[in-house]
Amino acid sequence: MAGLTAAARVLFETAEVLVGGERHLNMVPDTGAERVAWARPLHLTIDAIEARRGQRVAVLASGDPMWYGIGATLIRRFPREEMTVLPQPGAFSLAAARLGWPLADCATITLHGQPIDSLRLHLAPRRRILILSEDGDTPKVVAELLTRAGWGPSRLTVFAHLGGPREASITEEAQSWGDRGVPDLNTIALACRGAPDARALPQLSGLPDEVFEHDGQLTKREVRAATVAALGPLPGEMLWDIAAGCGSVAIEWMRAHEGRSAIAIERDTARAAMIARNSAALGVPALRIVVAPASKALDGLPPPSAVFIGGGIGDPGLLPQVWAMLPSGGRLAVSRAEPRGPHHLWRALAPVTQFCRREIGLRCGVSPV
């Protein structure tokens, strides 16, 4: 309560319904308001809030609710005009202040409800990363991942109960963290430092071919770099990678910037498993994988902003189907095939045909790579 502003206190004291975690609800005095604790799955409580529309509902949250917080969830359900958001300094701001790290120079991520492998995307020499933890085991899991990946000398500072009377911190190298536990409410500040065997990978397209597990079905580095550049990934956009092979194009699309999504469509189950391993190892475990022939997989998928067809073009209806699904401004890249017996084979470093649908007309270019 001591951290609430005067305006926040008024909203709390006049609320008819209080919503929050058990920890937050236990911190505040009884005002006679109905109390609703967060349930799992979360949407059950969001539904409960909606059922009380028209009442004065106050939702308790830590720090800035619009930065990996409940505010970002609520704004997807309720109109902005129905909400008043009163932020406080969040865990990232507090941790940066304690360490003297300029916040604008730090990568900020959450591992709360997110795969641990998403951290791999951000590892680079001298990189500073602020991490919201899932629970008290998260620092240990992060330390284990860093040590396995060659980043064992990285320094972890774990803050517990930031901003409260029980605030505490522990600093140790990842390789020396061991099994120590910390309170569930913790934030990790990671100063990256690689061992001699650490391999830092850029987020630009054109990763070395050897970083991908593959069985030969791989869009080679030079073609991949040109292809991703032609696809022109923008924040918030969706890529379909059809006949994805080892998933290299979809993975580089997602690595290029956070906030993008991709679907890798691959009919071969062994290759689909390989895509899953590659996406985790290269820091984009959120890549969605659909195991099915392209002709049966496209209907019902979220609409694409761009499409890469790495195989399957032998289906005469595929290219027209995909082209019709692209919105205005969508991009399509196709790798050219050559006959091989009764089948067609994608040849590495073959010419690449790139199409772009624009509002002012169709533009088509063919260039050797």
Tally of DSSP helical segments: 11
Order of helices and strands: HEHEHEHHEEHEEEHEHEHEHEHEEEEE
At the fourth level of CATH, the homologous superfamily of the largest domain is: Vaccinia Virus protein VP39
Per the CATH scheme, the topology name of the largest domain is: Rossmann fold
Corresponding CATH architecture of the largest domain: 3-Layer(aba) Sandwich
Total number of distinct structural domains? 3
**CATH class assignment of the largest domain:** Alpha Beta
In short:
The chain is an alpha/beta fold.
Descriptive overview:
There is one protein chain. The protein has helices at 6-13, 22-27, 43-51, 70-74, 91-99, 138-148, 221-231, 248-255, 269-281, 294-297, 318-325, and strands at residues 17-20, 34-37, 57-59, 107-110, 128-132, 155-160, 168-173, 186-191, 238-242, 261-265, 288-290, 306-309, 331-335, 337-340, 343-346, 352-358, 361-367. The strands form four sheets. The protein has a seven-stranded mixed β-sheet, with helices on one face. Strands 4-5-8-6-7 form a five-stranded mixed β-sheet, with helices on one face. It has a three-stranded parallel β-sheet with strand order 2-1-3. It is an alpha/beta fold and 369 residues long. Helices cover 25% and strands 22% of the residues. 33% of the residues are buried. The protein folds into three domains: 6-82, Cobalt-precorrin-4 Transmethylase, domain 1 (3-Layer(aba) Sandwich), CATH 3.40.1010; 91-191, Tetrapyrrole methylase, C-terminal domain (Methyltransferase, Cobalt-precorrin-4 Transmethylase, Domain 2); 209-367, 3-Layer(aba) Sandwich (Rossmann fold), CATH 3.40.50.150.
